[in-house]
User: Fold these one by one.
Assistant:
Number 1:
Amino acid sequence: MSVPSPDKGPIRVLVVDDEPQIRRFLRPSLAAQGYEMIEAASGAEALARAGDSAPQIILLDLGLPDADGVALIRSLREWTETPIVVLSVRNRETDKIAALDAGADDYVEKPFAMGELLARLRAALRHRLRLAGETPVFRSGELTVDLARREVTLAGVAVKLSPKEYDLLRMLVQHAGKVVTQRHLLETVWGPAHVEDTQYLRVYVGQLRQKLGDDATHPALILTEPGVGYRLVSEI
Amino acid sequence: MSNAADRSDSRPSPEALLAEAAREGRGRLKIFLGAAPGVGKTYAMLEAAHRLKREGVDVLVGVIETHGRAETEALVVGLEVLPRDRLLYRGHWLEEFDLDAALARRPALVLVDELAHSNLSGARHPKRYQDVEELLGAGIDVYTTLNVQHLESLNDVVAKITRVRVRETLPDDILERADEIELVDITPQDLTKRLREGKVYVEGQAQRAVAHFFQPGNITALRELALRRVAERVDEQMLDYMRQHAIVSPWAAGERLLACVGPDADAVAVVRATRRLADQLHAPWTAVYVEMPGHFRLSQTARDRIAEALRLAEQLDGEAVTLPARDLVEDLLRYAQDRHMTQIVIGRRPTSWLRRVVGRSLVEALLLRSGDIAVHIVPLGAAPRRKLNDFSWPALSWAAYAWTTVYVGGAVLLGHGTERLISLPSPAPYFLTAVVLAAVRHGLLPSIFASLLSFGAYNFFFVDPLYTFTVAEPHEIVSLGLFLLAAILVSGIAARARDQAEDARRRMKIQGALYDFSRKLATTVGLDGLLWACCYQVAATVQGQAVLLLPERDNEKDRGGLRIGNLRIAGAYPPEDDLDPADWTAARWTFANGEPSGHGSATLPTRVWRFEPMKTSRGLVGVVGMRGAEGPAALDPSTARVVAALIDQTAVALERDQLEGEIAEARVLAATEKLRHALLSSISHDLRTPLAAIIGAISSLKLHGDIYDAPARADLIETVEDEALRLNRFVGNLLDMTRLEAGMLAPKRDWVAVNDLLASAAARAKRTLGHRRLTIDAAADLPLLRVDFVLMEQVLFNLIDNAAKYSADGSEVVLAARKAGESLVIEVTDQGRGIPTADLQRVFDKFHRIEAGDRQIAGTGLGLAVCRGIVEAHGGSIRALSPGLAGGGTTIETVLPLEAAPKAHKEPAHQERGA
């Protein structure tokens, strides 16, 4: 599969991980997918590489020996909008959320399958492109969301959504393919006073799934990211 | 006690063997025994030391008193001499044997002259023989010198022979404990000659006394004593030998002696005499003090004398007993009979003619009723009268006498008032009532006062001629006299009854205190409460302060060194957190030696504090210190008994506490051990199996990758991926378990839609399910759960994973959720083999896996344990049902509490949007 690229050259990906064997197995796989891999084994090196080799996307391991991953994301975000995908382990949801809040675009759980990592990288890249080129109509399978006209159709049939349901869907669409933290959703849809009221979110996500024809026990459209938030599947 | 007790028994004694073994680590003691000063003991000792030094023994002169004798001084030359310790004593620098330096120097042999020497006050031990004990205990051999007159039990005899009382005495058993005794003997003629030549020095004695002491007759007598002691000692050695070699002993066993100790100054003489007798008879002996109701009225000096006599008995290897009694003779005899005593030793001094007329002496009463028991009478010399101040007279209470006067006045008024109504022949009953009232309420003296007063009043108011003290009729004299006699007898009896009642009350109080204490101990929770209760009770008993010292835990291991046991104050009443350095020394000494120290003991007796060891059958557990409010604690026998009981009870309770701790520790250790085994086997199996598959598949691909066709390669690669994922799950569970046990897996609760949870777990489990069908059975409108999404998803994943593992490929696994009352029930049902009933509980234990013969299913043995940990952390419960809900297989049922979810606000205007 080819990678969307603005300048048609290979995409430079900066892999920040202190484990050499991880970098070793990523190199051939990424190269096969048309990426050019730049390596950094520490936080300091990551900052230097991000500055001098201008990567188009950064894959960052949160557990670095010399730096706090979240702090590193913050200092990167001070001067660059390059998409960042973090690598994290299960059971460290707070780390993931902190990384996302600090400006990371998405996360992949370690250990990961290559296919999943590539999908996340693509989604993050596409999102940046979309932000740049603004595509107001989102399509995923039979679902179409026209953000400019505030219209939602499912297999050509208009879907009636309440304002909150629509706002929720719009947030997910704007970050399609990427995880959106529940805090972010609550803050934007219900307001800063309701960031703890996760039960609203559960109820509305349920309603939204029902209206969009997504099976609650086997969701294929709005995926739950345990302990973190939701993700709208962008390519079916 | 017990050397003596052993001897009464002819069986081969393990204790004798033990004593021999105990001697192994100790230094050897050799005593150069002489009959009198000047026989050349020091000289002989130094000669022996030179001989040993030539043989290469490390000899150190600890202390030698040469008394300026040139020949003795010459012999010291060539030996290493330990510098003396200089002590400031009453403004003078005095020199003393330096025990600590000798211990630190650790020679093979130390020479310590004058074993009977008393140390300066302020030294660690009051007597030099105690220093020697410590040297021996440290494994250092000691040579020492001793004159026979210094032996405790011979003290009286020597004093009688020579009319010189030797103050520096030491217990006889030091002689018995000596490994060797060398008698240094010269003839009386030679000794007299040496005396004339000025070669004999007798410390602190006036010239005249010295001359008297060294009379040939005296010397001969002392020589005989010395020779006899050595001969006895040889005898004992032979008996010891026979005992160790199980040779039946030749003596008649069975003699037991009982020494009666009273509050008079001669009590110690009776104790010494009994000891001598016991030695000759090879009999065990006991010193008994019979505590009569009047005991509490005895003065402090009298009580101290009793305590001293009993202590002496213990020092002389006897047993010391205090016997509370009401009838001296009867209770004493009963005790003697109960213990199969064969002889009672009692002191007697010449009685006055008055006593002989008035009543029988104690000795006579004993003789009359002793039956089989022989009574051995020790004549006590010129008897000092029992002093009036042996009794502490009750403080003169003016109120008591005022009241007494009122009673008698009342009797007079009543007598007069009723005279006209009823004509009693005599007013005596009124007065007797007043006397009894005075006796019962105020004791003996006021009642005697009442008797005399009544006698006067009777005479004055009721006997003609009235209002004079003269008596007209002769029969009136008789009736007045009889009245006085009756009044005094009555007051005596009534006062005695009162004493007994008070005594009983006091005893009740003591018993009550002990009972309270044992109840307190039984209900006390925790060590601190126990320590506090002990300190409080001891402090209350001695009416002062108490501290409880326990060994510092870290230092407990290095016991056995010279600096044994570092103690810490574990409890005190009133609260106290430090002691004087000298008191610390005393306390540590007590802990190291298991003997009391401080006031009233043999070690550091000048201290105000007294320290008692807390002993149990397993050894020493601590030290209790006590003192009075103003000075040392007054420990008369009854108080000492209470304190000893308190300390014993506390020691036992402490030991119980320690034992409980040790048992709990052992239990934890055993459990840990079992878990470690399970963990090791689990890891070796569950970690290695997937690794074996991965390494096998990868190495095949590396080696023959090109010969395999595409499907084979894909298959191998699939195997690697599956096994790697399984390894990942195992590690995940291991981590979760660790976190659960470390208490680090606190659920981060949040509102969770049940369907979301089921879907998420099902999606994750897709791969492990293989071709098994997973059916989710849940209503869309289930209430929200308030749980940690990630942890609960892990639970469901593990349950599905488990169901898949134990059921056939192609079978169905059902994941169902329903609301039941205030709970949400989630069931995972498989159609597998099921679980034996016996294992239904245990499947949730760590590393438990149902044994399945050869067919070991690769699992972690952790999955269900993690599930239980997480579910319980959420306040829920989990159980296994087999056969399961489907009629076969297994159902694992998880029940989680439901919380009332806050309602999500309805949107005010439901604005619909359409295309």
Number 2:
Amino acid sequence: MSNVRDYMVRTMNSVTPDDSIRKAIILMYRSEQSVLPVVDHQNLFVGTIYSNNILKNIIPESFGFLDSSRLFYEVNEAVENLKYVKDEKVEKYMARNRDAVKEDSDMKKLADIMLNNKESVLFVINDKGFLRGFIERSNLLHYLLDETEVQTAAEE
Amino acid sequence: MITTVTLNPAIDREYFVDKNEVMKNQFIYNEEDLKIYPGGKGLISAINFKSLGYQDVQNIGFVGGKQGLFFEKMVQKQDIISNYIYTESEIRNNVKIIGREPATYTQYNDYTYQVEKEDVKELIVRFKRSISESKCILISGSVPEGVDFDIYQRLIKIAKDKGKHIFLQASGEALKLALESNPDIVTPYFKHHKTILDMEMKDKEDYIKAGKEIQRRGAKRVMIPFHCDRLLFDKNGDVYQLSPRGYCIVNWLGSSDAYNTGYLDYAFQTEDFDFLEANLRGGAAALWIAENKEIYLQNREDYNSYLDRLEINKLEV
């Protein structure tokens, strides 16, 4: 049986609810992750901050569809909005979901969770709820490919 | 969770050539002649701990730019939990050219890495919340440009306030200031000059004086490299000399990190800690690395078989 531990990415890259949105944005682009885990001051997982959520809040009306004729106006509006939003706390924009997976969870269960929740990234915690890293769809595909190859080898 | 701290990591690149000549193009076709690995004192120990079977091992520090992300991938490939502050400036690259005939070794040490004050502030915040699961923290290595020399002093104070044990391997001004926060175990290393706490090291007496002074300034226990030996300063004031017998050194890289790993591994595994026994384990691990062409430890059995090649003698001081 394969566990999440075998395919996850181990990293403590995270923000806290008290951190500013500016800090979250900088961390997102420097680490090339558009979704970050939110942890408390002990590194316990408490939620998720999505770049999409931040964008939705700075381009509220036209999110998802930027008309080219309105693009200049929209971008300017976003810049203006971000001037205020950047100093606000992550707490205000984070999702307080608890959809983290445990590192010893079966990879088969992970497929269910990931596809049912439509999450591209799930954060991984240990038994006590401390952050351990994340697992994304490419890791799930990696696992499925390994399974396919094991099956093929067995059939041969 | 084992926590190691590496503030100034680097991507180490080793190129093996038949003959290293200036003004000559070299071509490397064989994969074995090109080695790229993540370097940094605390990190090498982290990889060693992983090899010894510890489940959760994290490495805290700075990485920078796109090459920093590449560095992080290499660390994660070793199953280490990366815990890095990402900086704008690119991470260091150390280049080593090793010639076979004649045997030559040319090293280009990169000291261009720059850390901003905002990143240092963030490291302090991250460190505070990341050590909650650890009982002992290994801080090891140099301090990058832009980071004040009191950084180790600050990190140790945070950890000590939370009741953590600190193993520190440092040099120069950073070591001097760190002692004020009373680290539990200190092992100084020589960087560019053979000095400890500004004292020049020539004779054994100089080393003993330095060890005593490190203890006087705040460290409980001290281990100082003395040629191929180690001088050991126990917390009750006793001084010992650890010496290997009949050795043949083929590699220095990774031996001090192996020492730290062997020492701490013993401390983690025993409930009846003995300072000399811990140093024997550390010495055996260092000797195993020094006599093999490896940077990382592989298992305890390898280096425990070297234990009977070490001796410890008490010094009259």
